[in-house]
Specification:
alpha/beta; TIM Barrel; two-stranded antiparallel ribbon; Glyco_hydro_26; hydrolase; GH26 domain-containing protein
Length: 461
C-alpha cells in the first residue's frame, strides 16, 4: 500500500510539473465570447436521438440532466429529406435555447458547394435561428484526416470554408464557426481512402497542396510536418477551434478494452503523447498554437473511451485479452477529460486549458467496423452505474462543468444587436497570418515512422 501511494504521489508531481502554468482565460471577443462561459465549459452530448423517439425530453428524463450542447450531423449541400428529419429536433433545441453543434459533411466533395448550396444554407440557418437555436457550425471537420472526401485539400478547403463562414455571418446574428481538425497523432493517416499522394514534382511546385503539407521541407508529407496550420482558414472566419480526442484503446488494430494511460487526454492536445500507441511527441501543441497564441476558445468536439461489448467475439475479445470493468475503463477517461486538479490520472484540464469552453461526450452505443462488428459502448447514459458515477464526478466541480440551465441564464436578454456589436470588434481586428510550425529533424521522423500504424483513425457516426 505504501508503495502504491508513493507511486501515485510521484505521478501527481510529474503531471503538476509537466503541465504548463496557465493564466485565466481572457475575455473573448466576437460572437463566441457571448456564448462561452466565463469559467469552465458547457457540458454537451452526441446522442442517438432515435433511441429516444427523437424526443429531447425523453433523453433528459432518462439521463437525469440537460446537456447544454448537442451535436447534429447533416450532409451538405442540404437536402429536403435531411432538413425535414432534423426539424423536430431543431424546434425542441431552439425552445431550450441550447447550443447545436451542426456538423456539415460534404460527402459529395467540396466542388458541390456552389452558390445554390450556400443560398439554401443561408435560408435554413436563418429559419433555425428564429426557433431559438444557438448554432455552432462545424463545417467539414477532421479535414486533416484521410477518411473523408473533403480531406487533405488545404487550398480548396480554406476557400470553401471562407464562403460558408460569410454566409453564416451574413444570414444569422448568433451563429458561429467551429474549425475542428483531428488530433495529429498518426498523421498523415496513411492508407485512408482520401490520403493526398504526393510525388516529388508536386511537392516542389510552389503553392501546391503537396508543398503546403510538406511544410518541414524534407520531401515527404509525414508526422514531422505541422498537420494543423495548412488547413487553418484565418482568424477572421474562425470563432472556435476544436479537436476530436478519443481513447480507442492502447494500440492499433483497435478492439481491445484497455484502460487509458494516465495523462493521455492532456498529452494528445499538447502533442506530448509518448506511450503504448507510439511516440507522437513531434505533434504540435494545438492549444498553444490556437488558444494561447491566437485567442480562440476551444471545443472538444467529440470524446469518449472505447468499450467493446464483444457480442460477436474476434479481436480484443479472446481469453487472453484485458477485461477491465466498464466503470474502470470509462472512469479513467472522464477523470482525465474533466479534471480540475492534478491527480494520478493526469493534469488539471480546467487549470491548464481555461479556454476549453465546450466538451461533448459521444454518448452512443453502436456496432463498429474497427471492432470487427462488435458493439462498442461509448456512452455514459445507458448504464445506471456509469451514469450515476459520471454525473457525480462532473458535478463535483459544478461551477466549472455546467449543464443547460447555466447556459440559459447566461443567454437570457442577449439580443441580436449584442452579437452584431461583438462581430464588429472581430472584423476590425482582422486576421493574423499563420505560418506552419517548423518541422523536426530527420532522425526524429525516422524514429516515428518505425512505430507508425496505417490509417489508425476510425469513424464515429
Amino acid at each position: 500500500m505504501r508503495l502504491s501511494l508513493l507511486f501515485c504521489a510521484v505521478l501527481m508531481l510529474n503531471f503538476a510539473g509537466a503541465a504548463r502554468p496557465s493564466k485565466p482565460a481572457p475575455a473573448l471577443p466576437g460572437r463566441a465570447g457571448l456564448i462561452a462561459p466565463a469559467k469552465g465549459a458547457w457540458l454537451g452530448m452526441a446522442i442517438d436521438y432515435s433511441k429516444f423517439g427523437n424526443s429531447i425530453t425523453n433523453y433528459e428524463a432518462s439521463f437525469g440532466r440537460k446537456p447544454a450542447s448537442h451535436i447534429i450531423f447533416m450532409s451538405f449541400p442540404l437536402s429536403d429529406g435531411e432538413v425535414q428529419n432534423v426539424q423536430g429536433l431543431m424546434t425542441q433545441l431552439g425552445a431550450r435555447k441550447a447550443i447545436v453543434i451542426l456538423t456539415l459533411e460534404p460527402y459529395g466533395g467540396l466542388d458541390l458547394i456552389d452558390q445554390n448550396a450556400l443560398s439554401r444554407l443561408s435560408t435554413q440557418l436563418a429559419a433555425w435561428e428564429q426557433l431559438g437555436v444557438i448554432g455552432i457550425i462545424r463545417f467539414a471537420h477532421e479535414m486533416n484526416g484521410s477518411w473523408y472526401p473533403w480531406a487533405q485539400k488545404p487550398t480548396q478547403y480554406k476557400a470553401v470554408w471562407r464562403n460558408v463562414a460569410q454566409v453564416v455571418k451574413a444570414s444569422t446574428c448568433k451563429m458561429t464557426m467551429l474549425w475542428a481538425p483531428n488530433e495529429g497523432g498518426g498523421y498523415p493517416f496513411s492508407g485512408g481512402p482520401y490520403q493526398l499522394k504526393c510525388n516529388q514534382t508536386q511537392i516542389n511546385e510552389a503553392g501546391s497542396d503537396c508543398a503546403q503539407l510538406d511544410n518541414n521541407k524534407n520531401g515527404y508529407v509525414d508526422q514531422g510536418d505541422d498537420m494543423y496550420s495548412p488547413y487553418y482558414p484565418g482568424d477572421d472566419v474562425v470563432d472556435w477551434v476544436g479537436l476530436s480526442v478519443y481513447h480507442f484503446g492502447a494500440t492499433y488494430p483497435w478492439g481491445a478494452n484497455n484502460v487509458p494511460e494516465a495523462g493521455k487526454f492532456y498529452n494528445k492536445i499538447t502533442g506530448t503523447y509518448n506511450g503504448a500507441g507510439g511516440d507522437q511527441s513531434n505533434v504540435p501543441d494545438f492549444y498553444d498554437m490556437f488558444c494561447r497564441t491566437r485567442g480562440k476558445p476551444m471545443v472538444i468536439g467529440e470524446t469518449a473511451a472505447l468499450y467493446n461489448l464483444c457480442d460477436k467475439g474476434g479481436r480484443g475479445c479472446g481469453a487472453g485479452d484485458p477485461k477491465p470493468q466498464e466503470l474502470t475503463l470509462k472512469g479513467a477517461w472522464w477523470r482525465q477529460v474533466y479534471a480540475t486538479s492534478a491527480t494520478s490520472d493526469g493534469p488539471s484540464i480546467s487549470a491548464n486549458f481555461p479556454m476549453i469552453k465546450i466538451i461533448n461526450w459521444f454518448d452512443i452505443k453502436k456496432p463498429e467496423g474497427e471492432a470487427e462488428g462488435n458493439t462498442v459502448d461509448w456512452s455514459v447514459s445507458t448504464s445506471t452505474t456509469i451514469k450515476t458515477q459520471y454525473i457525480k464526478f462532473v458535478e463535483q466541480a459544478s461551477t466549472t462543468w455546467q449543464w443547460l440551465p447555466a447556459l440559459q441564464s447566461q443567454m437570457a436578454g442577449l439580443s441580436c444587436s449584442s452579437f452584431q456589436q461583438a462581430s464588429a470588434v472581430v472584423a476590425a481586428a482582422g486576421s493574423k497570418p499563420i505560418k506552419p510550425r517548423p518541422g523536426f529533424s530527420s532522425p526524429r521522423r525516422t524514429k516515428r515512422s518505425a512505430s507508425f500504424t496505417p490509417f489508425p483513425r476510425p469513424l464515429r457516426h
